[in-house]
Input
Amino acid sequence: RYIGDWSSDVCSSDLSPHGTANAAMDESMDMFESVPVRQPITLYGLHKRTLVLTAEDVTNRVVRIIGCQGVTVYVLGPCRDVLMLSCVGCTLFVGAVSQFVHVDHSEKLTCMISAVRLKISNTSQSNFYLCVNSSPLLHGNVHRIGLAPLNAYYGGMEQHMMEAGVNPLLNLWKEPVVLAPLTGSPQKLSPGALHPDESYHIIQPSHFLPFSVPFKTAGPTVAIPSELPVEYEEALQQRVERVHHLRKRMQEECADENVRKDMQQLVEARFKEWLNTSGNIREVQDLLKMSERT
Output
């Protein structure tokens, strides 16, 4: 399977998977490793598209996203490796990766990643929401990388994490290891510290938002598999309470049916305006087309 130009060489890391904290994870990892590696999926040179790859598509495969702009990719399954290279303005959601996610020479990304390992190289102005079992590795010319805990899920995510050997109880998202661009020597920072060269920062709880995966998949997962830090959980709860308060206020002030209709028209008009100015209207149209095909 491929979208865009095809290349058959596998760019998988040859490192063995990181050990997990329980025997069930190890057993699942052994089962995952016994499945033969299939040909990689390559998404090449795509522009402003929305794509979804299911467990049937990606199990034990390498996924490569190369030279794409404004693309949203959902990887809803346990894959082996993910490479994102030379991409701009893309959104990536990855449910479970057994070996390595490598993001290189990219900018203005939003990435939700559940993986054993993550490496970010020569990338700038991008946010990463993570559940990773080893410290994120920042290498080369990295600038303004935002780090935060994982903020999304889908129905089969916990099962896929188990199959890939990703432990949701072990999340080192805020403990990156920064390698100096020239010497390559490790410079491990204290958790949450701002690197002096502005290579990365911790996304503040007040700026933390959940990400919705707009596909129904079979499985029991109904919340983010990895536990959120207290300050992020509280920030989300405060947002929910503000929304409830706003709805209650609107109901009280729009008791008159004519006022309610005017308010509804105003909200719909502003929402459509936001969809167009933000560029999100394109993704909504893509999702509607997918829904029609199914």
